[in-house]
Design a protein that fits this description.
six-stranded parallel sheet; Dihydrodipicolinate Reductase, domain 2; 9 helices; alpha/beta; 2 domains; globular; single chain; Rossmann fold; 347 residues
């Protein structure tokens, strides 16, 4: 029996998930779309029902699970409403704006007995997975250091209007949620100490478009994250470029390009993702493959009564790391994890 999905939201990522469910997953049905002024048009495009409200969508008996693809500030209330209606919940990243919201989402789903997962698409892209296989297979010996560069010439365009509201968390939350999760995934460790500086070099302020963050992992791995949506053209490559330095070699991995293994005096190409335009070719099967695979895993987890590949605790840990970098920037001091949850509660 197929797992029947509803999508909450009607913007860019709602289009992404609708296309995945329509073309790239199996034993799944897209039933309805609700939320956002573009929901009727998106529903019509895929020949499904348009619901006028989120409450109407989650109350449908023919919906087993929802994909929440709404502004960050709505992830908590939409998750709570969906869980209370007995629907399994897949949330577009970031999980939430802070760890208190994450905890409330986890509690709501646990109390309702439904599954919860969050988009961590880097784990499902073939270039990072190739790098992870090399790493886990001992190709570079013991991992010592990680550096990630996320180079973008501008933040999202004006049609993504809500992302330019500082209350939605800004670019550091948006991209940091991906990179901090991948950092934990590559290193196989939680973060222990974080020191960060976060800036806006251009107007308007308070969008956290540039960050340099130093992280010490609990297993001793040292990491550096450089994120900027303010790099002038021609830029410095893609938004997810990784260097993994081990005791015996180096892995270079562009999440949207080539993976190389460096040992001895040579570099060996190991894998290269087929090229596509990240911004223009949004329905490229190459782009959609990773999203579809995670949605497929979630559908299979529902059907098989098992946990999804990405646990909510993993998504929360990424938000905690993002929050620790912000706290370090505010205080000028290194921050130790875990954070004191009593000091990081939402209003």
């Amino acid at each position: 029996m197929p797992v029947r999905f509803g999508i909450v939201g009607s913007g860019f990522m709602a289009h992404t998930y609708a296309q995945c469910l329509d073309r790239h997953t199996s034993s799944t049905d897209l039933v309805a779309i609700g939320g956002g002024r573009r929901a009727p048009g998106l529903a019509a495009e895929y020949g499904v029902d348009a619901e006028p409200s989120v409450e109407g969508l989650v109350s449908r008996p023919d919906v087993d699970a929802v994909i929440i693809a709404t502004p960050h500030s709505l992830h908590l209330p939409h998750t709570v409403v969906a869980a209370a209606a007995g629907k399994h919940v897949y949330v577009e990243k970031p999980m939430a704006r802070d760890i208190d919201e994450c905890d409330r989402m986890i509690e709501a789903c646990s109390r309702a007995g439904v599954l919860l997962t969050v988009n961590k698409v880097t784990r499902f892209r073939e270039s990072p997975r190739t790098a992870k296989r090399l790493l886990d297979g001992g190709a570079i010996g013991r991992l010592r250091m990680i550096r990630v560069t996320s180079s973008v010439t501008a933040y999202l365009p004006d049609e993504h209007g809500w992302v330019h509201d500082p209350a939605e968390g800004g670019a550091w939350l948006d991209m940091g949620a991906h990179l901090c999760d991948a950092l934990r995934w590559f290193s196989g460790s939680d973060a222990m100490t974080v020191f960060g500086r976060i800036r806006d070099f251009s107007a308007p302020p308070d969008l956290a478009r540039s960050a340099m963050v130093q992280v010490e992992m609990a297993n001793g791995v040292l990491a550096q994250l450089w994120v900027s949506f303010e790099v002038p053209p021609p830029g410095l490559g893609s938004q997810s470029q990784w260097i993994l330095v081990g005791s015996d070699g180096i892995i270079e991995a562009d999440a949207y390009g080539q993976v190389r293994l460096g040992r001895g005096t040579t570099w060996e190409p190991v894998y290269e993702m087929p090229a596509f335009d990240l911004n223009a070719d949004v329905y490229s099967p190459v782009r959609l493959a990773a999203f579809a695979e995670q949605v497929q895993d979630f559908a299979d987890a529902i059907r098989d009564h098992r946990s999804p590949a990405v646990a909510p605790a993993d998504a929360r840990a990424a938000i905690e790391l993002v929050a620790a970098a912000r706290l370090s920037d505010q205080t000028g001091a290194a921050v130790r994890l875990p954070l004191d949850t009593t000091l990081h509660r939402s209003a």
